[in-house]
Design brief:
heterodimer; A: alpha+beta; six-stranded antiparallel sheet; about 50% helix; globular; B: mainly alpha; 7 helices; 2 strands; about 55% helix; elongated
Chain lengths: ~325, ~140
């Protein structure tokens, strides 16, 4: 327990997995965990509403990283959910007392150590408990700079918050992590899987086609509905930069993975792909700035066409990159 | 994004914390870097918070005038909307909307109020005292 090293991460789920694996003796950076689990994605889901707005995701759904990564690495993943909160607390205490790290899924809203403006009802936040002292848990929350403490009652409320994506006290840990890995095979397999998610789904809301779909929605905004437009455009920005964090919709993180993978395999192609994706990430950031600019000026009618066009050009760039990576991964 | 482009806009929405982002150094090598805020992101967050506060103030005024039960105001205060509150309490949305009427709210049982109390993280006695306050 004392040997546990907290590491700040950009995203909660990849951060928890990187910490769990590193602690188990397989050193793993956060981008590597994210990339090997094929976390990158895009989805525009109009049916799932978040405060009346469509869900826009830049990564795979919660729990995807945990499951995919442990499967690919051949580690044994134990997961437990509880119908009785009291039992959930007892099992967490027992796990911690036996010196185990426990990954937990919880709500953001009920965690008192979050700044008030970040506290929204999002039930799929991941954190790592590494010990307890008196009436407090010692918590390594991946998105924070330092380890934090949380009172038993508060963590209990956060773990068992009801509603969409309810965690039901989900607790998970890893066993038997194989320390020898076939990196070449792993990296190719995970890159191929990402190219299929982003550019190979026959659905109009997923991947590149999802980005194009979002561009169409922005084109269709009615300039007269200025209040709705502002909420809609800033909602996109929030989904991209804030929810689950990661920045630029996880593009920089994946670029960092490609670079690290390229170094591991000594392959120039991945380094070039990483540089391309960095440029695409910069375009995503500019797109976010443009959305906010259009929401800011209340007076004149904003012009949405250039914003939609910049999104279409991002879609084309990502498609080009995915084609190259797919070809590489089959080489 | 280059390391020197990592925004440091001191956003109040970060509450004095820093986020980790990935950026490249001069030779194109990726590193983790801390950012204490990005203005466009903060604007988006503040707009969403302001929207909820506006809805809350409106519902609170309705409650003071006796046109609404406190539930609507509390719903927005705890950053919920009708679909979210319905999922958490396990009540139908139309029942929740009905409970927004003061006359209906006054007659709600302690069991129903307890479900709302849990969703808001409040003691149920507080919701019961609102019933008496409205009589």
């Amino acid at each position: 327990m004392s040997s546990f090293q907290h590491q700040q991460s950009a995203h909660c789920e990849s951060g928890v997995m990187a910490s769990l694996l590193t602690h188990a003796g397989l050193p793993m950076s956060e981008p590597m965990a994210f990339g090997l689990a094929s976390g990158l994605a895009f989805a525009y889901l109009p049916i799932v509403k978040l405060s009346g707005m469509p869900l826009i995701a830049y990564r795979m759904p919660p729990k995807h990283l945990i499951k995919t990564l442990s499967k690919r690495l051949g580690a044994r993943l134990h997961t437990r959910t509880f119908s009785d909160p009291e039992q959930g607390r007892r099992e967490l205490d027992a796990a911690l007392d036996s010196g185990r790290l426990a990954g937990l899924q919880s709500s953001v809203f009920w965690l008192p150590y979050f700044p008030p403006e970040m506290r929204f009802h999002f039930n799929a936040h991941n954190l790592l408990a590494y010990g307890r002292e008196g009436n407090e848990y010692l918590i390594s929350d991946p998105v924070f700079e330092e380890p934090v403490r949380c009172a038993v009652e508060d963590l209990q409320k956060a773990r068992f918050a009801k509603g969409a994506l309810a965690a039901k006290g989900l607790m998970y840990w890893l066993d038997d992590v194989p320390l020898e890995q076939d990196w070449n095979k792993l990296i190719r397999q995970s890159v191929l899987s990402t190219t299929r998610i982003l550019d190979g789904m026959p659905l109009p809301w997923i991947g590149i086609r999802g980005i194009q779909h979002l561009a169409k929605q922005i084109d269709k905004l009615d300039p007269a509905q200025s209040k709705y437009n502002r909420l809609y455009l800033t909602h996109i920005v929030r989904m991209q930069e804030e929810i689950g964090t990661g920045g630029a919709g996880f593009r920089f993180m994946y670029a960092s993975f490609l670079q690290e993978a390229g170094e591991k395999l000594g392959d120039r192609n991945l380094q070039d792909a990483s540089a391309q994706l960095t440029a695409i990430g910069d375009n995503w950031r500019q797109f976010a700035s443009a959305c906010v600019r259009a929401s800011r000026n209340k007076g004149e009618a904003p012009n949405f066409a250039p914003i939609a066009d910049s999104l279409r050009s991002i879609a084309l760039q990502e498609r080009g990159l995915m084609k190259e990576l797919a070809a590489w991964s089959k080489r | 994004m280059k390391l020197d482009e990592v925004p440091q806009d001191h956003s109040s929405t970060y509450g004095g914390h820093c986020k980790l982002v990935y950026a490249v150094d001069a030779s194109g090598h990726y590193q983790g870097a801390q950012s204490d805020g990005w203005e466009p992101e903060a604007f988006a967050t503040q707009l969403a918070v302001a929207e909820l506060q506006e809805q809350e103030a409106e519902a609170e005024a309705g409650w003071q005038r006796g046109e609404l039960s406190p539930l609507k105001c509390l719903m927005y205060r705890y950053r919920l909307d009708e679909p979210a509150l319905a999922q958490i309490t396990g009540l139908w949305q139309w029942r929740i909307r009905r409970h927004f009427r003061p006359a209906i709210y006054r007659k709600l049982s302690a069991a129903i109020l307890a479900r709302y109390a849990e969703a808001f993280g409040l003691p149920v006695e507080q919701l019961i005292s609102y019933q008496k306050g409205m009589a």
